[in-house]
Structures are given as structure tokens and as C-alpha cells.
Design brief:
The structure is a homodimer. By secondary structure, chain A is α+β, with helices and mostly antiparallel strands. Among the domains of chain A are: 3-155, Jelly Rolls (Sandwich), CATH 2.60.120.260; 159-265, Galactose-binding domain-like (Jelly Rolls, Sandwich), CATH 2.60.120; 607-683, Maltose phosphorylase, domain 3 (Sandwich), CATH 2.60.420. In chain A, strands 11, 12, 13, 14, 15, 16, 17 and 18 form an eight-stranded antiparallel β-sheet that branches. In chain A, helix 2 packs across helix 7 and helix 6 runs parallel beside helix 8 (353-370). Chain A is globular and about 75 Å long. Chain A starts with a helix and ends with a strand. Chains A and B meet through strand 2 and strand 5 of A and strand 2 and strand 5 of B.
Chain lengths: 685, 685
């Protein structure tokens, strides 16, 4: 490389750099302990990984003349040149000598993540610098959008925006504020006066806020102290909460002008759209978007009131919804990195065997929807070691079983998950296929072949050992070498979605399992997400729309403003709000409740990438009985628009090689979508 | 267990508890970044492990009546009973219900180590509580001597004591203080007045302090600011330093009454003694004790000026010296735990292959000298995984080689350590023997047998592949299946000390290797420690005393007040102070310089444990040409005293089954040492 090259390649601005992954891991550590149950901390019950406190950065430059640079670090730093580690400086401004030199900077920080920012005319920290955790691991430094020396990574906060209550009333002499719909943020008291205690009872429902003894979230502060902490006459509470209602009890003598809130959120763009001839479905779609948005935060959370943790199985679904709505890859990447954490792998993600396996599928989806091979490359080693960890759990038959310390989850249902569970084998096979694809993309043909062969063996074995020809489906589990008679939908759904069944098997599964009332019903929105997707894969669109209207529409009937963790139409009144034996234990804003985003975008508008980053894709719209629908699905480079009624389909794409596929006169028709962004119109008549 | 049992077993005081090992690991993280080179941070260049930020404690009690307890935590805690994790409290005082219940307490702390202190009439935190890092690992909680709720683990500090300079003079108009001998601590300015800068140049030698441009340690502060920080008129500097001299340069207008220092140290007891007919040796012994004491701090450091890091090979020697002097097991245990750190093992201890192996030998010595099987039990799993890590590095011949990223050290010498180095195999064999012994003690006979068989194989293979019958010693290394002709003392010394050679081989090694001037001389006190020990093992006591007088006596001649990192009598004047290409780079107070403590105690007084905790021991005194000597060697239960001249030996022991062994008329005589603490006297005539 010539000197000229170096200077040309230098980017325009410096940026904060760190050991890759540590920003996300540190943020995850902080967020995993934010949960409060009635004001009391309820930390996540798994190992929380930590940033490396001791790291070093390096960079080789070649400068025609000496240059002055300014150095900022989060932590104690020292800089030296050309390996002369006895001759260090920690001056904030230094002169770098001309010529070719290697800069080394050690940074130590045992509170926040060590980070470095160096800025000069030509020498500036960016991803072309390398970092080490002193483990024989010089890797490209981590970075994001922290481009200002005064806004270091540790200062990262979500955006905030003032919101006012929609209405207020007095209940038993205390003000009850209603913010109109579910929200998340910090209550604010304007012009707080007097002395005494203030107690706040939050509710996702009105009933919850009015239950001072059982509402999930509470706050309590001293008015005098709070007034002293006020800025510009406004006291903002320290902890953000999920709520729609807040019931405020204050001691006599405490007063304020008004109470508002500071809404806290990730400023995503609502890039998707869906509208159709059924207004109820449109309402469900919009509410799903809002539900997902509230849960798309530092990471994709399960729910914003509870648990406020990062669960891999929940995130897997949120990722998919995100590709059909905001296409915000920052939240996705942060979540993928935080879930993987650090070595050693001792327990599975969130203690759940299936949740480790979902991570591979999530990573595979990430690559399919974004084409971001750089991210895959950066975290490939962590994927390899996770796969090694999972494969080490195979029994003598080569099937993965839960260890004594593992939670084999599958679903919130009364399932016997002992032995080797068929769903687990199918998730592992899909993970092995993903690893094979990554290895191939990264040029390791041998590893790719090994992973593929493991995947093929496992698929074949699973079909052989679990398929019940008589009952037309995959049985649930196998204990001590004997497949048990229990039949559930779960493995069948995944096998269908992943394309592991023959057309004949798929047809049998639909009729004998998925639509068979004798097979136990799926009750959680979590698994209904996969169930609805599997039914769509089998063209049961009319049935799926009926289910969506009943299930999601049912929540709206009950006053939902975001979708819930669980919904059982048979319950009465406030019984809907209970879960886990806790009166208001149910989360009323749960990411997995937003599944219609994915269903409508992928299976009704029918937009599906076929290769990484939408380089090729197909659009297979299905009205599912609707008179018309139209909508937009975003991707990295632009979006795909679909507009359909019973007589014609119109499609437009900004990027990639797309094909419109539809049925006319009982025959499948495929038409290329123009690459110039113009509309394609196809008649269905 | 009955209720009565529970209550009886409750100790008298509560104590702070934590996840075992995390106190030492957190302290090590902090201490590893204390090094400063001319005021600039110089952190350790290996991964610094970190405490778990998220831990949980549990305890099952059975109480006849309810009981009020007070709870303190370092970190955010929440407590719940009987697994009801939705019903938590973080109140500082609670009432525990009567009956049998399980207490769970989660504690999160991402700055200092999570720790818990609960105190009630019967329920109190102690080592009978268990802790988990949420990795399927309920283990007995860690604890030490933090018995007061107001003195939590994070407040741990060494002891301090004021010291005055021995003398002062003006040099070039600036005061040069001389504290009389090497010391460590914080300078203090009494009644500081005026404004301006104060600069301090520290020196372990006078020449270093007077070299403002090149002295290793410096301080600089603003007098006005310092005066504001003063307590009771005394400003104490923030960073402790190693020095004998301090040269103080102040701007005009800055004044003070006097400068003293706050000596910082571990309050050990000097439990050993040695005196003999040669006053020079007595001086060497006392100076060795002081040298070791200065380096026995939070951990055993290599040197107090530089590096102030915990090096496993250095610590191995300090442990042995400590058994013959202070017998302070706290520093030893802290050091052993800090060195092992956490998983995953990626690099070797201090990046050095041999340093991982020394840890097993150190742990083995710890058990031999103390009999503390509880400590071995607590850290056995970490020993097993370290051994797995080391064994994974064996080549096709079954010999351990350094990986590309490993430093194979052996000694500070110009050695070619490529391929399989014989010293490494011998250290590994000794480690495997130690693991076999631990496994046996802990009741795992199968593991014990496996380790022993691995050790025996490796010893046999090493003797077979490296022994050169013609040259009478073990050759240095083997590359690509071919043993190379290089002959060094190192492997031969260790093989002799560990008893791996036949008597005939041992005799040949002494003459053909150890006393052969054609074999490269050992120049570092580090390896001279082992060389002298090996020579003593072969009864070369007269020769060893000559060497001690010349080598350690030589440093005293040059004005040493503590022993150095290295000593080369051929150097002139201030050239003694340089090392690593740095003018004052040499450490003049280095733990490995204190070797005579070990030599005199083990090989002259001749006190050696034969089984764990001095349950059996032998005393084999050797005058080595001295007219008389007497001394004391401590152990866990008391001490052994020896008093010998040419005509008789007197021995007294407070504990254990000891045997006095000596030679009379060319025959070996063994006499049991009385168990009642009375003196045994044996005539040598």
C-alpha cells in the first residue's frame, strides 16, 4: 500500500472504537437488571457477560509529515509507538512522527467499556483499527455511530419525547392519568411543591393501576427531595416504566401543576405498509407495528413491563417482524451479539436449549434479509463455538437431548420434553444448514461440507425416527431409544416451514395434524406465530385470516392498545390480566403479539427474499378472501410495493431480481419484476 | 438435621459472603493496572478476569420462631423465600417466618463484587450459605475476615504506618530524602503552603532519584489543590510507590514543614529465624525476609517498583519462601486464585506455558505445607480444566509444545525453546502427580489413577527421549522428533528436585551438568533459586554457601537494602540499575531475590514436611561448613526449632510426627522428635 492510498482511504470523521461485541454485551448487562417487581429488583437469572476491562488497540500509519492528534479514552489509556512499551504517554494531545509507525494504545476501564477516540488531519480511529483482549485475537475494532468525542459509547441513551396524558380523572380522591394507549417512559412532575411522599401505581390496564396492592410497577419518592432534583421546574422519575395508566397518591400538602411523561424509544422509521378491504385487519396491523416498536429498544425485549429481558426465542420472531416493518438492523445486531455473549458456554441462552438453536436460525435470517456478510464474518467464530457446544450434547443415537440443567422449552404448554424432542432436532438441522451456508460464503468449503453432512444426517434420522406414517406427522419425542406416541404440532410446523417434508408428507401434516382438532391446540401467541406461518406455507390463507380476526381482534375487543403475551377468550374480565399466578402478571405489550406484521408482509403481500440481501426475491401475493390489499415491504436497498385485488396484481421493486408469481386459470405464472423501479401489472382474469 | 443442630452450628458472627474466588479476581483486576512508568499507566498485558456481576445466594433454615434479620449488600439485592421469585423484597430489615424455609438473595453489582451480609439472632451469612453464578453451580459461598457490616469486601486495604526519612540533604537546591532502606508507600506533605507545582522523583537508588529524566517513578501535583485535599494538615499522595530516595522539586513559593511517608504493608508475623556463625549470612537472611515482605502484598508480586504484577513463576518461589518465614496463607491463597482466574482458558498464565504448569506445583506445595484440603476441594474443578487445557497441547509424541501464541520461558536466557522442551515435560509430569494426589484425597480414585498413569508415561518418555548417557544429563529440547544437542541445567535441576532421576543419574548430573563449567551458567536469581535447591538436594551445601556469600553478599557490598531482580558482578557503578534497555529499569526489590530464606530453612536447618500439613516431617540439618547455626521454621500448628554446632543437634517441634536425620560416623541416624514440644538433643561425636 502506498502512502497516498492510506491517506485516501482515511474516512472523513473519527469515531469511538472498542473491542467488538463489548458495547452490546455491556449494554445487555445493564438492561438485564432493569426489571422491577413492585419496585424491587428482579435481575435476569442467567450469567450476564461483561466487557473486557483491559484491551489494546493498534494501527499502522505512514505519513509524509508529522501530525498532531487529540486522544480521548473512556478509561485510563497509554499510547506508545513501534512496540516501545516502556516509553508511553497519556497526554491528550501528541505529535505523531512522520514515516511508517505502529500506534499501540492500551485502555483499561472496569466500570464502562474501554473505548478510544483519536482525531487528527489523517489519523483517526475507525474500523480499520484493530483491537485485542490479549487473547491472541487482533480483530477489527468495534464501532457504530459515536462520531463525537463528547458523546462516548457509555453515554448511549434511547431517544425521548414529551407526551401528555390523553385524559385524567379523580378516583377515590387521587388523580388517575390515562395516556390513551400503552406507552413507555418516565413520569414527570411539573412545579412540584410541598413536602411528603408521592406514590405512583402504574397499570397497563385501568384495573392494574387501581390495584395499589397488586399492580406490577410502582414508584415512590419524597416530594421535597424530588423538587430539589427538578430541572427547569420539572422532576423526571429515574426509572422508565411500561404503562397506560398512572394513579398518583400524594400526601396532603404535596402539589404540582401537571404530570406528563417522557416517552423513550428507538427512532425507527415505519417503512412498511399494509391496508386491505377489512378495516379490522388494518387496525390489527397498525397495533402490531406499535407493539413491536415499543419492544424494539436497546434490544428486542419480550415485553416492556415484564420481563424486559432479551429472550432468544422471542427475539427470533421479533427479528422476522422487523424485516417486514422497520428493517432496523441496529436493534437486530445488538440483540444477536448480546444473546451470544461470551465464552465459556456453560448454560444455553436464557437457560433454554431451543433458544441457543434459534440463534442460528436468526443469524441465517439476518443474512438472508440483509446480505450483510461482514457481520457474519465478525461473529462466525462465536457461531462455531456455539455449534460445538450444542453438538456435544448428542446422545448415542446422534440426537440432541436436554441435560439435567437445561430447560427444553418448545412452548408454554404442558409438554413432556424428556429425551430427544423432534422440534429440537429440526431446529438443530436448520442451524447446521445455516452454518454450512456461512462457511461456504466465508470460503471454508471443508467446514461447509461437514456442516451440511451433519444437517443431512440429522434430518434423515429425524424423519426416520419420528415420522408416524399412520398418524401422518412427526411424533413429539423419543425416550431411551423409543419414540413416544405423543403427537404435537410443533415439530411438524417447523419441518414444514424449513422445507423438510415431502409434498405428500406436507399434505398429510396439514390435514392430520395442523387442522386436526384432536391434536392439542396451540394457545400461546408465541407458537401461534409459527403455526400461522406454517398454515400459510400450505396456502391456508383464508383460515389464517379467520384466526387472526378472532385472536388478535379478540384482544382489541377487550380494549387492547398493544398485543398481549397470551390471550384466552374463555377468561372473564380482569382474569385476562393474570399470569404466572400473579394477578397482573401478564404483559399487555409483548413482542410476540405483533406476529401479523410478518404474516401480512410475507404471506399475504407475499414478499420473500430468495438469496442474501434480496438479490433475488419472489412476490407471491395471496388475498386470502380479501377484496383488495396493498402494501410495502422494506429491504436494505429500498422496498417492494404490492397492490392487488381480485382482478389484477401490481408490483414495484426498487432493487434486485424479483419475480411475481401467481395463479391464473389454475396455472402458476411467473413474471420478472422490472429492475428500473417501474410498476408491473398482471391481470388475474 | 434437627432444628437444634442448625441453631448450634450457627457461628457467633455474620460475615460478608460472595461467589468464591471473585474477591481475589476483582482485587487482581485492580492491582494489575497499578503499574506506572513515569506516571503513565502500564497495565498487565494479559486478559484480566472479572467478577460475576449477577449472583445469587441461598440458605435453608429451620427456626422455632420468627426472627428479624438485617440485610446489607454491596449491590442491588432482592430477597425471596421458598422459590417465590415474584414476591421479592429489598427492605434492609425483614422478619423471617418460623419453620423450614429457603432464603434466596440475588445481588447485582457491575462495579464492585456483589456481596451479602445478613445478621439475625440465628440466621447469619457465612460459608454454609451457597452461591451461584447462574451456571448450574451452587457452591459454598466465598468469605474471609469481613465480619463487620460497615467494612465490606470492596473496602479492603492493606495496613499503613507512618515512617520518617532517615536523613535529608539538599542537592542542587532541592531536598533529597533518604528513607534509609527500600520501602513502599505514600509520600505525605505536612502543612503544605503556597501555590505552584511540586514534582517528585523517586529512586530505589540515589542515582535513580537524582535522574529527573530517567527515574522510573514520578509524581506531580499542584500545591494549592493538594493543600485543599489535606486532612489534619497532611496531604498524602494518591499512588503508593517503591523507593528509598525521593527528590522533591517545588516551584518557588511552595513550602511545607516536613515530608514523611505512609508505609503500606501486609501485617505478617516474622515467624521464622535463622542465625549462624557467619554474620554476612545472617544479614542476607534478614534482608531476604524484608525483601519478601515488601513483595507480599495483595498478592505476591514480582517486584514492588516494576512490574507490580502477579507472575506465576515468581509466585511459585515466593510461596516456598513464605512457608519458611511468615507462613501467611492469605497472600498465598489470594495469589493462587488470582492466577487461575476464570474460563475460558485461551492463553497461558501471564502468556507463559511454564507458568501455567508452575501453578500445579504451587498448589501441591500449598497442600504439603498446610494440609488445607478444603482449599484444594474448592478449586479442584479449576485445576482439572487447567490440566485439560495443558494436555490438549501435546504433540504426536505426547510431549507438550508451545503454540505459536505461547511464550515458552524457562529462564531469562538466550535459549532456543522451540519444539518440546524437557523442562516443560518435567513440570507437567509434576503437575499430573499433584492432580493424582488431589483426586485421591478427594475420593476420585479413577481420576487419580488416570493422572498418575499420565505422569508415569510422561516421566518415562522424557527420560527416554532427552537423557544423554554420554553427556550425563537431560538435553534441552526436541524438534520435529529429533532431540537437539543443547545441554542446559534447567531440566536436570527440576528432575533432581522432583526425584525423577536414579541415584546414578543424579550423581552424573551433579558432576557433568551442575558443576560443569562448560554448561551455560545460570545468571538470574530466578533460576539460581532452583539451581541452589538442586545443589542442596545433592549435598553441595558448602558450595551453595560460597555462592550465596558471593551473589547475595555482592549486592549488599553495592549498597543493596533489598535483593535485586538480577545481579551481574561484572557491571560497573550505575550500570547495575539498568535492565530491558531502560536506564533504571531493574527492580531493586524483587521477590525472587529472597531465595536464601528457603535455602536456609529447608536445606540448612533442614526442615521438610513429608506429608500434608507437617503431619509427618523430617529435620536434616546441614552446617555446610558453618561453626554453628540455629533457627525456627513455622507451620500451621506451631514451629520447628533447630540448634546445631559441630558436636550436637538440638531439635524441638510443637506438632506432628517428626524425625531427626543426621550422619554420625558415616552412618545415617534417625531419631523421633518428641511430640510434647520438648527438646531432643543428639550428639554428633
Amino acid at each position: 500500500m502506498t502512502m497516498q492510498d492510506t491517506i485516501q482511504e482515511t474516512p472523513q470523521t473519527a469515531t469511538w472504537i472498542w473491542y467488538p461485541g463489548d458495547f452490546e454485551i455491556r449494554l445487555h448487562e445493564k438492561m438485564s437488571v432493569k426489571r422491577r417487581t413492585r419496585g424491587v429488583p428482579y435481575p435476569a437469572y442467567w450469567r450476564l457477560d461483561r466487557h473486557y476491562s483491559n484491551v489494546k488497540f493498534r494501527y499502522v500509519y505512514d505519513l509524509p509529515r508529522e501530525e498532531q492528534v487529540a486522544i480521548k479514552a473512556e478509561g485510563a489509556f497509554s499510547l506508545y509507538l513501534d512496540g516501545k512499551d516502556n516509553d508511553r504517554t497519556d497526554e491528550p494531545v501528541i505529535m505523531l512522527p512522520a514515516g511508517k509507525h505502529e500506534i499501540s494504545v492500551s485502555v483499561f476501564n472496569d466500570v464502562e467499556m474501554p473505548a478510544l477516540y483519536i482525531e487528527g488531519p489523517n489519523i483517526r480511529t475507525d474500523a480499520s483499527w484493530e483491537a485485542t483482549s490479549y487473547q491472541n485475537d487482533w480483530v477489527p475494532a468495534g464501532m457504530w455511530t459515536f462520531d463525537s468525542p463528547s458523546a462516548p459509547p457509555s453515554a448511549f441513551r434511547l431517544a425521548v419525547e414529551p407526551q401528555e396524558p390523553a385524559s385524567a380523572e379523580e378516583v377515590q380522591g387521587h388523580p388517575l392519568l390515562d395516556f390513551g394507549r400503552e406507552t413507555f417512559g418516565y413520569l414527570r412532575f411539573h412545579n412540584l411543591q410541598g413536602t411528603g411522599k408521592v406514590r405512583i401505581y402504574y397499570g397497563e390496564s385501568r384495573a392494574e393501576a387501581l390495584s395499589t396492592a397488586e399492580c406490577y410497577s410502582v414508584d415512590r419518592f419524597d416530594a421535597g427531595e424530588a423538587a430539589r432534583l427538578a430541572e427547569d421546574g420539572v422532576y423526571t422519575l429515574g426509572d422508565a416504566k411500561a404503562f397506560r395508566y398512572a394513579w398518583i397518591h400524594a400526601d396532603a400538602g404535596v402539589s404540582w401543576d401537571r404530570v406528563s411523561m417522557l416517552y423513550e424509544y428507538v427512532p425507527v422509521t415505519y417503512r412498511s405498509a399494509f391496508a386491505c378491504s377489512d378495516p379490522k385487519l388494518n387496525e390489527i396491523y397498525e397495533m402490531s407495528l406499535y407493539t413491536l416498536h415499543l419492544n424494539a429498544r436497546e434490544f428486542f425485549l419480550d415485553g416492556i413491563k415484564r420481563d424486559r429481558w432479551v429472550w432468544s426465542g422471542d427475539a427470533y420472531q421479533a427479528f422476522l417482524m422487523n424485516y417486514y416493518s422497520f428493517f432496523d438492523l441496529n436493534v437486530t445486531r445488538r440483540t444477536l451479539i448480546a444473546l451470544r455473549g461470551k465464552d465459556p458456554l456453560v448454560m444455553h441462552f436464557n437457560t433454554i436449549l431451543d433458544y441457543s438453536l434459534y440463534w442460528f436460525v436468526s443469524l441465517s435470517d439476518y443474512y438472508l434479509y440483509t446480505g450483510d456478510i461482514a457481520f457474519i464474518r465478525q461473529y462466525y467464530d462465536r457461531a462455531v463455538s456455539l455449534m460445538d457446544f450444542c453438538l456435544a450434547q448428542r446422545n448415542e443415537e446422534g440426537l440432541v437431548e436436554g441435560r439435567q440443567q437445561d430447560w427444553v422449552f418448545v412452548d408454554w404448554a404442558d409438554l413432556d420434553n424428556s429425551g430427544a424432542v423432534s422440534t429440537i432436532q429440526i431446529l438443530l438441522a436448520r442451524g447446521l444448514e445455516a452454518m454450512s451456508a456461512f462457511a461456504a460464503e466465508l470460503g471454508d468449503a471443508a467446514a461447509s461440507k461437514t456442516y451440511l453432512s451433519l444437517a443431512d444426517d440429522l434430518k434423515a434420522k429425524t424423519l426416520c425416527l419420528f415420522w408416524d406414517e399412520e398418524r401422518g406427522g412427526l411424533l413429539h419425542h423419543r425416550v431411551d431409544g423409543a419414540t413416544q406416541p405423543m403427537l404435537t404440532k410443533h415439530a411438524n410446523m417447523f419441518a414444514m416451514t424449513f422445507g423438510y417434508l415431502s409434498p405428500a408428507q406436507q399434505e398429510r401434516v396439514i390435514q392430520s395434524v395442523m387442522l386436526n382438532p384432536d391434536v392439542p391446540r396451540i394457545r400461546t401467541p408465541y407458537m401461534r406465530f409459527h403455526e400461522m406461518a406454517a398454515l400459510c406455507e400450505s396456502r391456508q390463507h383464508d383460515y389464517v385470516l379467520q384466526e387472526v380476526r378472532a385472536y388478535w381482534g379478540g384482544m382489541i375487543e377487550l380494549g387492547a392498545t398493544t398485543f398481549w403475551e397470551e390471550y384466552d377468550p374463555s377468561l372473564a374480565d380482569d382474569a385476562h390480566y393474570g399470569m404466572y399466578g400473579v394477578t397482573f402478571g401478564k404483559s399487555l405489550c409483548h413482542a410476540w403479539g405483533a406476529g401479523p406484521i410478518y404474516l401480512f408482509g410475507k404471506y399475504f403481500l407475499g414478499v420473500k427474499p430468495l438469496s442474501a440481501g434480496y438479490e433475488t426475491f419472489v412476490v407471491e401475493p395471496q388475498l386470502g378472501g380479501l377484496a383488495w390489499m396493498k402494501g410495502t415491504v422494506p429491504n436494505s436497498a429500498g422496498e417492494v410495493e404490492v397492490d392487488m385485488d381480485a382482478s389484477r396484481i401490481r408490483v414495484r421493486a426498487t432493487h434486485g431480481h424479483g419475480v411475481l408469481r401467481f395463479t391464473r386459470d389454475g396455472e402458476t405464472v411467473e413474471v420478472p419484476i422490472p429492475a428500473d423501479g417501474s410498476w408491473l401489472e398482471a391481470s388475474l382474469l
